[in-house]
Structures are given as structure tokens and as C-alpha cells.
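User: Predict WRP73 protein's structure from this.
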Amino acid sequence: ASCVQHRLVVRDASSLHIRQLYTCLDQIQYLEWSSDSLFILCAMYKRGIVQVWSLEQPDWHCKIDEGSAGLVASCWSPDGRHILNTTEFHLRITVWSLCTKSVSYIKYPKACQQGVAFTKDGRYVAVAERRDCKDFISIFVCSNWQLLRHFETETQDLFGIEWAPNGCVLAAWDTCLEYKVLLYSLDGRLLSSYRAYEWPLGVKSIAWSPSSQFLAIGSFDEKVRILNHVTWKKITELDHPATISSKKTIVYKEVEKSPTVDTERLSFPPTRALASSLFSTQSKYDISQVPVSLQYIKPVADRANPKVGVGMLAFSADNCFLATKNDNIPNAVWIWDIRKLKLSVVLEQLCTIQYFQWDPCQPRLAVCTGTSRVYLWSPAGCVVVQVPGEGDFQIMSLSWHSSGDSMLLLSKDHFCVCYLETEEV
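Assistant:
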């Protein structure tokens, strides 16, 4: 699904043929599929309205108007039949049921980076709250939205919460001014508290492994610390130095080359598409000999949100690899072998890393850098894929299909779908 102003366009994922076309009341600012792909939510924050469309019954539609309370966020519950709307100034979260048309309210939600977290099985939801200048977490049962647990957290300014994939442990972390990661059980007991250091800027990013065995914590000190699920103690620290000296680490360096084309031999003037492919610079990977010095940018210390520390990290679907990005070295992706707890590969790009995401079915990483190329890494090696087409298609983000056989590439105003051949083909 994609939106153009107030139009919602639903396409077939394999052929991109238009399946449905819907017209909303205003410009769409956010859209989201339900978990069973039967409904689409379209949020228009400026007007405080949410419209819901049905794929099975195109004539059916639903409109939710928050009125004077306003609207700043909207999302589906995991069952795909309830919508959670957050009102302006985070006064409350309103839970709307599409089945019974009933309404429930969750008071005092906190305005933080990640204040609402569902368990993977969809049975429970945790909500970060702020009351009387103190942080709390409430856990609700999603089947009837009844309160299961409510407890105060040992944080100065709670910044985010995230469930482990098995739904047994909830991680909560403090603001970057206070290095603290807290781990709570489903019944609200504090299982462990972790603090690596005290005074410098603290936690910047967090990621659970798919098996729930590891919790990776990216920090402003350019390190990743991995906690184990048995004792919740640190098992290793992963450094991100500007010089790679280990001979066991493979460094893939992106290089550009301009193709040499003898235009006088062309018996006809090339078309625009052919000319763009003939004369555009091409990219490939070379293996660098260690030691390798990476481009290191010294952050500006007197500005807010300094470009320093590990801001992106993600585990592969098979738990074998961890990909990280150190904002001080913006052109590099670090890939760690979790089985050996060693650095396996570094991808050194020509441009700043914008986003990366693992294939949901196998250890294959897709990377984009704001250019018209997408980069793929797997244990077998690296490949550069040029997006064909006229003009400059700058890929700012990407998203894998759940089957792993295609991915969506997003620029500022356009999108395209990249299909990957399977071994059978």
C-alpha cells in the first residue's frame, strides 16, 4: 500500500498491479496494515482522524474522530481488530474495537521514544507512564484490556521499553544522561539492573536476539555490550575502532569506476535510459588488505544529539550475526559473528549508511546509503545492485518481504520493489 496526498493505492506485491484505490478525507500522514492484511489504517494527524479500509469488502469503511483531543500517533493491536490512538500532549491512549465498537482508555502515557510495546504473541502490551514526576509501567491483557500489573520503575527519565521475543522479559532503559537498563518479568519483578558506567552519555540503542538469549546495548562510548539471559551479566564488549588490524576480519571496500564507452562507434544516438546506464559510474566491492583505516568523524561536542556512538544494531534471523553502525564512522557496517563473539566483516561504503535490515528468513543483510544502489551481504560474499530507471533514485530506507524473496526500496517521493531470484529459478 502507498499513499499519494489523500489517495490510498493498494497494489499486488508480485506484479504491482493496482488492486484497490481509496480516497481519504485529507492528506494521509501514516498508514499501517493489520496483522492479517485484511484492513489498512490511515491516520490524518492534522485533523485528528483515522480511517480504516477493508480489502475483502471495499464498500465497508470506518472513521474514528478524536475530536478536540487531537491525535499524535495511531497503531494496530496484534489481533488486527483494535486501534490504539494517542491524543495530543499524551493525555491518554484510546483503544477502539472494530468488532464491538467499544472504547477503552489508558491514562498518563509517557511521551518517549518507545512507550508502547506488544509481546510477539500479541497477548500483552506494556505502556510507559508518567505520574507525579515518576515513571511507571502498566501491563495490560490485550484480549480484554484489563490491567495485569502496574509498577514504578527505577529510572530518572524512562526513554523506551521493549519485550524479549519470547514475551517473558521486558527491557526498560533510561535517558541518555543516565546509563541504566532494567529487566522486568511479566509480573513486574525487577530481575536485573545493568549499568556500564556513570557520568558520560549512556544508552543509544537496544536490540534483542530472536532467540531472546542475548540483549545487545549500543552506547555513546562507541561500544556494544551483550548481556546473557541466564544471569543478565555482560558476556562481551564489542569495540568499533577506526583501524581494523585483525587478519581474521574481511573488509569489503566499495569502489566506483567510470565505464569507458566509445561513443563514435555507436551507429545511433543512445536513448536516455541507455545513456544513463552507459555513462553512469558503476560500483563494486574490493577486499582491502589489513590494516585498514576507516573514515572517522570527530563529533561536535557542544551540540545536541552528537553524531557519536552505536546508533543502529540488529540481529540476523538465525541469531548467528549482529550488524552495527558506529555514528563516528558513518560509512561502515560492522558484522559480528555471535557464535565466536568476534568481528567477522566490515563493509566500507562511499556514502553514509542510511539504513540496514536483515532478511527475515536467512542471514542476508541489505544496506542503503542514499544512492541508487542497494548492497547485499551474506556469508558467501557481497554484491552491489544498481536500481535501473531514469533520474536519481536515492534509497533512504528499505523493507524486506516476510518471505525474503523481495524488498521494498524507498526514496523521498518514490518506491520500487526489488525481486530476488530463488535457487529453483
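The domain at 1-107 is CATH 2.130.10.10 (Methylamine Dehydrogenase; Chain H).
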